[in-house]
Amino acid sequence: MAKTKTAVRKAVKKQTIKPVLTDSPGHLLRRAEQRASNIYTQEVGASGLTPRQYVVLTAVAAYEGQTQTDLVTATGIDRSTLADMIARMIASGLLDRERTEGDQRANSVTLTSAGKRQLAATAAKVRNAEKRVIAPVPASKRAVLLDCLRALGGRLDSANTVKPAAKRRK
Fold first, then answer.
1. What is the pLDDT of residue 160?
2. Residue 35: which of 138, 166, 27, 86 has the closest Cα?
3. Taking the CB of residue 118, how many other CB atoms lie within 10 A of it?
């Protein structure tokens, strides 16, 4: 019995088994996200904006006065998570929200002065993080990588589908 186990071990060692994980898109995407998250934290700092908070502030700045529903489309963050994030960001003084004129059920979201300052203070750090994240990819392949990531993400950054801002009540 011992000889059989030893023989099997030797046979397995001689084989070149290709690691399954190196061909797993899900695993590779998780690893890339881990790397991106670590680099983001190094650049922005643990006490700075989280990546999702930065995305929300960026989307609000780009689509000033949009409704929360429009921001769900622009960011790809689900409705309940985004509503909770916006509530916390309002409480921390980064965002403001008010009912829209056209639909009393909808909220228009805007940056406060503090939100604009925080976004401006974080933007260069995020750009540095993004440069570091993509640095291992040859420059000639970076545009292709970004196109592939957009395709995989279902183009959640559908900025072209965001409607003009509804008029806010005064």
1. 41
2. 27
3. 21
Q: Are 170 and 100 in contact (CB under 8 A)?
A: no
Domains of the chain (ranges plus CATH)? 24-156 (1.10.10.10)
Distances (CA, A) of 19 to 5, 8, 31: 23, 19, 15
The residue ranges of the chain whose pLDDT is under 70 are 1-4, 7-19, 100, 103-104, 155-170
CA–CA distance, 97 with 89 (Å, rounded to integer):
10
How many angstroms separate the CA atoms of 51 and 158, rounded? Answer: 18
**Cα Rg, the chain, nearest whole Å:** 23
To 5 degrees, how large is the angle CA 52–CA 137–CA 45?
35
Single pTM value for the model: 0.75
SS3 state of residue 48: coil
Taking the C-alpha atoms of residue 103 and residue 106, their distance in angstroms, rounded to an integer, is: 5
The answer to whether 68 and 109 are in contact (CB under 8 A) is: yes
Distance set, CA 76 to CA 44, 58, 66, 142, 170 (Å): 22, 13, 15, 22, 30
Scanning the structure block, which residue is given the tokens 């929200």? 97
Locate 158 and state its tokens: 């559908």
Residue 134, pLDDT score? 96
CA-nearest of 13, 48, 9 to 129 is 48
